[in-house]
Amino acid sequence: MPSATHPTTWLVTGASRGIGFELVRQLVASPENLVVAACRNPAKATALNNLKALAKGTLHVVQIDVSDFDSIRASAKQLEPILGELGLDYLVNNAGVLYPDTAFTLDPETLLETVRTNAAGPALLSQVCLPFLEKGRRKVILHISSTGGSLQTTLGVGARLASYCMSKAALNMLTLKQKAERPDLTVLTMCPGWVKTDMGGKEAQLEPEESVAGILKVVTSVTLADSGKYLRYNGEVIPW
Ligand code: NDP
Q: Where are the transmembrane segments (predicted)?
């Protein structure tokens, strides 16, 4: 059971704003969680630093740029003093980018950059975190994907968001590959819904609070039997 001496540990990427920040905000509200919030520029993450000042030692802020492989590899040194003894219960690969484009207009460099951030970064960070996850009690990897990564449903986006959807399809495949290679881990890929953030825009359907409350309810209740599932924030199954 989680306690002050053996809390439930979380690492959340892209924690400076949007869904990542809201994840951290809701997690630190519970004293049984110890949260590592990763962002690419901690000095500019004002809201996160303000939260840290209030969190009484249960929130650590570390620098990870998930599009920079050296930064990801170097993060092990930042994580070791925080998670070395406790291990990591939940790795949440949340950071992501979206550039609006279509299949016949996309710049291949943009496609590569999107895949780098949205799929290659999460793959490498999972490798870096594996020793910590092996020590953790829950051993959960959560990839924040999108219904846009589904091959079976176009989510009404039609031709739009080609690079983004390809990158999320790659992230979804990573989920299945990680599950197949490590049946001792619980690996999930989830869509947060259409959420009011810088990425989702003001027209989006969900407030970050509602989306994140749903995600946390789902991810904290999954078991090993759920590994490899593709779920919405409210627990609904998404067709691959
Ligand atoms: P935002 O654009 O609001 O925030 C993106 C976050 O990712 C920021 O914290 C940003 O940091 C961070 N980030 C981007 N690139 C990097 C990088 N290279 N290294 C580290 N951090 C990075 O997006 P959302 O909060 O809406 O999205 C979060 C996740 O949810 C994404 O994976 C997205 O694809 C997914 N999603 C969102 C939906 C929505 O409707 N909002 C719908 C479906 C999926 P910085 O402040 O430094 O730029």
A: none
Residue in 26, 40, 150 to alter for ligand 1 test, most ligand atoms within 8 A of Cβ: 40
13, 95 Cβ separation under 8 angstroms: yes
Domain spans in the chain, listed from the N-terminal domain onward: 8-232
Pairing mode of beta strands 59-63, 33-39 = parallel
- What is residue 38's three-state secondary structure? strand
Q: How far is CA 149 from CA 22, 59, 155, in A?
A: 23, 31, 9
C-alpha 142 – ligand 1 centre gap (Å): 14
For the purposes of burial, counting CB atoms within 10 Å of the CB of 235, is it exposed (0-12), middle (13-18) or buried (19 or more)? middle
DSSP string, 183-235: TTSEEEEEE--SBSSTTT-TT-SB-HHHHHHHHHHHHHH--GGGTTEEEETTS
Q: What is the CATH number of domain 8-232?
A: 3.40.50.720
Beta bridge partners of 145: none
Per-residue pLDDT 10s for the chain (240 aa) are 666 678 999 999 999 999 999 999 999 999 999 999 999 999 999 999 999 999 989 999 999 999 999 999 999 999 999 999 999 999 999 999 999 999 999 999 999 999 999 999 999 999 999 999 999 999 999 999 999 999 987 667 888 999 999 999 999 999 999 999 999 999 999 999 999 999 999 999 999 999 999 999 999 999 999 999 999 999 999 999
| Identity at 56, one-letter amino acid code | K
Pocket residue to mutate for ligand 1, from 197, 198, 234, most atoms within 8 A of Cβ: 197
